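TASK: fixed-backbone design
INPUT:
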């Protein structure tokens, strides 16, 4: 089966006082339609640089990308992007911020239809009663809900998420993770997300792409997350395989992330569950989430 998104030998170099510095080198990844893939790695390894190139916000130095059979060049409405900060226009309401993208993506639709799209997605993220509020009147979590609604309202081929919950408190982060999954499973958009949170990556994704440290960062290891969907946080975190999977990600980040791909040692045995269901364990407490 052909990949929905194919990233081939993607590289990015930036000028520096000593010459060009290659931040990402020959990054290869294939993502199937409907997959949810998370990129994880140490700060500064180039995760957001990869996402920016896929989004068309930064031109690659070398390599190329194909989405749904079309080569990517520059930004477009086929990719909905959610940033760590939603970057809303402060003089517009939540409804108007979402409508900006909707009007561009569906310019042939009637005005009433475009308005209904904006209202529909704002309602799905829990902002039915706050559509006419400006960003200054909204909490950080509510502003991020607007950002998520804006991305989904474009009906993109792919979602690109750059640490969308990184600035939120734990409770709000959990709420928005669930909102994201609920929206995602409605039509199972292909998603590529950058995160620093190991537990978040395991909860949301089908595969975790562990990046090596920069400069010249690349794909170090890809780990399958085979927990069945739909998922609940409690079932996954109480499953006996969860700790093994978590340890595998942390082991890469702590012990092997600094190695170039040719220097890698063989990865540990696969740890994701092979059973079709989850069997909750009797444990009641877990270690705190790991943020990199």
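OUTPUT:
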């Amino acid at each position: 089966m052909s990949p929905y998104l194919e990233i081939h030998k993607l590289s990015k170099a930036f000028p520096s006082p000593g010459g060009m510095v290659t931040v990402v080198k020959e990054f290869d990844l294939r993502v199937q339609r409907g997959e949810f893939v998370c990129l994880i790695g140490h700060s500064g390894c180039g995760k957001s640089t990869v996402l920016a190139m896929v989004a068309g916000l930064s031109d690659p130095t070398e390599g190329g990308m194909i989405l749904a059979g079309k080569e990517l060049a520059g930004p477009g409405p086929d990719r909905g992007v959610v940033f760590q900060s939603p970057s809303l226009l402060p003089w517009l309401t939540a409804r108007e911020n979402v409508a900006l993208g909707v009007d561009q993506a569906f310019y042939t639709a009637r005005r009433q239809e475009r308005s209904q799209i904006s209202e529909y997605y704002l309602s799905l993220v829990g902002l039915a009663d706050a559509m006419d509020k400006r960003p200054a009147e909204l909490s950080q979590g509510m502003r991020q809900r607007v950002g998520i609604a804006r991305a989904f309202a474009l009906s993109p081929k792919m979602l690109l998420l750059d640490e969308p919950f990184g600035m939120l408190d734990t409770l709000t982060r959990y709420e928005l993770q669930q909102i994201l999954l609920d929206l995602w499973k409605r039509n199972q958009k292909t998603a590529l997300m950058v995160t620093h949170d190991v537990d978040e990556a395991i909860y949301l994704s089908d595969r975790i792409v562990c990046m090596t440290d920069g400069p010249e960062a690349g794909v170090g290891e890809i780990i399958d997350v085979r927990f069945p969907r739909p998922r609940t946080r409690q079932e996954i975190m109480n499953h006996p395989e969860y700790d093994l999977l978590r340890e595998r990600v942390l082991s890469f980040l702590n012990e092997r992330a600094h190695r170039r791909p040719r220097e890698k040692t063989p990865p540990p045995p696969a740890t994701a569950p092979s059973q079709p269901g989850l069997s909750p364990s009797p444990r009641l407490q877990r270690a705190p989430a790991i943020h990199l």
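COMMENT: The two ends are 34 Å apart (CA to CA).
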